[in-house]
Amino acid sequence: MIAPETRLGRYEIRAKIGAGGMGEVYLAEDLQLHRRVALKVLPPDVAANSDRMRRFKQEAQAAAALNHPNIAHIYEIGESGGTNFIAMEFVDGQTLREAIFSQPICRSCCDIYNTSRKGWLKLTRPALCIAI
């Protein structure tokens, strides 16, 4: 875990906000543009694996190529002091998981899922979006 107030390039860590298969996500402040961002940080052991590092960069490049309301904007792929990260738009509010599990399955949850699914498919399988 990266401690609050740690700097990675032009970003200052504020708090850890999540974790997943490819690393941890932190709320950070962009000190140049004075905005909150999400930093997805790749752990050193994962960064040492060239295939996983390639997938990390590929994910950022694919997302950066899209403009969709359900996909966070990518600002930068960076490295600072041996720590690799993706700087992206911070969207405050519930995660999709929280929205789905905070209430009984209902129409709004299905709508949230379907809208997010379309954005994800656009990111991972652009040719399939025609059929949606």
Report the principal-axis shape: globular
Q: Structural class, please?
A: alpha+beta
CATH class of the largest domain: Alpha Beta
Helix content: 25-40%
- How many beta-strand elements? 6
Number of self-contained structural domains: 2
The number of helices is 4
- Unreliable residue runs: 126-132
CATH superfamily of the largest domain: Phosphorylase Kinase, domain 1
Descriptors for this entry?
132 residues, alpha+beta, Phosphorylase Kinase, domain 1, 2 domains, 6-stranded antiparallel sheet, 6 strands, globular
SSE inventory with pairings:
Blueprint: E1 7-8, E2 11-20, E3 23-30, E4 35-42, H1 44-47, H2 50-64, E5 74-80, E6 83-89, H3 96-101, H4 107-124
Antiparallel strand pairs: 1-2, 2-3, 3-4, 4-6, 5-6
Structure, explained:
The chain has 4 helices and 6 strands. It has 132 residues and is an alpha+beta fold. It has a 6-stranded antiparallel beta sheet. A hairpin with a 2-residue loop joins strand 1 (7-8) and strand 2 (11-20). The radius of gyration is 16 Å and the shape is globular.
Outline:
With 132 residues, the chain is of the alpha+beta class. It folds into two domains: 1-92, 2-Layer Sandwich (Phosphorylase Kinase, domain 1); 93-132, no CATH class.
